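Box 4.2: Ligand-aware structure prediction
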Amino acid sequence: MSSEALRPAETPAEAPAGAPPDAVPRPIVTAPVLVFDDVKLSFSGVKAIDGVSFEVGPSELFAIIGPNGAGKTSIFNVLSGVYRPQQGRVRFKGTDIIGMRPHRIAALGLARTFQNIELFANLTVVDNLMLGRHHHNTYGVLAALGWLGRARRCELANRAAVEDMIDFLELEQWRRYPVGLLPYGVQKRVELGRALAMQPSLLLLDEPVAGMNLEETEDMARFILDVRDELGIPMIMVEHDMGLVMDLADRVMVVDFGRPIRTGVPREVSHDPDVIRAYLGEEHRTSSGSMDSGSTDRSTDPAGQMVHSPEADDGRSTP
Ligand SMILES: Nc1ncnc2c1ncn2[C@@H]1O[C@H](COP(=O)(O)OP(=O)(O)O)[C@@H](O)[C@H]1O
Ligand SMILES: [Mg+2]
């Protein structure tokens, strides 16, 4: 796999200087790719985001967790320019992006996947991935019509990037199928591929394993880690699956009613009494006083392997 070609243009190819390759948490030693600073957003009295601040470092996997309605998707919508907050600052790669149109923010290098799959069901895997490349087209309509030099080079570069993505996400056997016919877990992988085909500098994942069975979840977890470790792309992941978050994330922010409760490495956060109270309720305290992820679909066994409860295989979507 030529993962080099899939890296974001400005993201350093190597881990931060001095960082041991497998150490978790990985220290942030260079400028953050994203600064979200004291953001407030309300909808006719409902405080969707109420003074949230956080930073995401280069090639960091940052998770946001919290109950339904806590404001997680609203944070993503502010980041991608869908919602304009009443207060606060959001700097992406040093650029103030509040008030910027969504397509301009995307062109700056911010890509996302959605809580519910957003793909063209009738198009093939290859064609959906090609659509993820469209903003890399630097030629005009006339050149495209005439299939002239620059358009042709651009098309070939896009094809090559899509082929790399198919390789990276192990989609070869599905490449010619309309995505609507594919298994759910593969569709979610194609959506990840469409976002990665943009060669983003920051990737937002909204509930990447929602509705997946155990095998699909483990596959997706592996690909998410590969995105961070092989492509070096920083990510923000919103996820209900506590076990997954605790296993994968470098740092976690817990939100409730639009407010940040605690931000830290998974171990610290899972032992925080306020987090336990707000997110899981008193009844979920374990004897050690730490968070018991058994109330979610998955939890982590003592060996660090993800274990799965049978009821998690039912639903295919979350509200
Ligand atoms: N477009 C909107 N109009 C009105 N209320 C909204 C809108 N978007 C989100 N909200 C409200 O903001 C709060 C946070 O929602 P959301 O960000 O979707 O939460 P989460 O993703 O954590 O479940 C909820 O009370 C929700 O009803
Ligand atoms: Mg949501």
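In the box above, the bound molecule is adenosine-5'-diphosphate. Residues 3-14+28-109+199-313 form a domain with the Rossmann fold fold (CATH 3.40.50.300).
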